[in-house]
Amino acid sequence: MDGSAGEPRRCAVIRGVLWLYVPFVTVTNNAVIGMALKYIEANPQERDLLRSLIVLALHGPPIVTPTTTPAHVTCSVALVSADGRVLHTRAGGRSWKLPGGHVDGADQSLLGAALRHLAAQAEVEANGLIPASVLPVDVTPHPVDAVPTRDEPEHVHYEATFLLRAADGALERPTSRQISRRWVSVADVRGKLGDKLRSEAAHSRV
Which helix (H) or strand (E) element contains residue 21? Predict the structure, then answer.
């Protein structure tokens, strides 16, 4: 069995028996359901927003696999510097966004997947970073357009964003020329994520 999380599911008939091959994933649907329920406990006003995610995870294929439709989970990092700015990266001329992406079959947790993307996209290692929680600070569904050339239907990314704070000196390491980084004031982060980051910042100053 191929352990790649990005490989589509396949099936084959062997001696009259139908075998269904699914990508191996370490982050199970039960783990995602547990995360979602704890997140809702902390954010009860978002219960309806995550209802479909929980139903899909209960009854569907691996919810973190990139090929799973109509929705799957992705991860990102809101890394806040000591002076209250949030890291954004850009790759290939695309728009600035939080470091993040799909979950890989080797990732041991959603937070681990987010940290892997942070290291790859921003050259920031976990050493010297302080997670606010093992739970995401925000989970938001984002609609994704279909890509007919890749036979990819429209679907939804449930982006789980983890809040991390940088200790003094943790971000002094220079980055390569291939890495594009910029720091955005917490005041300029939009949506409910921005509201939560500003609330966290206000509480940290108390």
Answer: strand 17-21
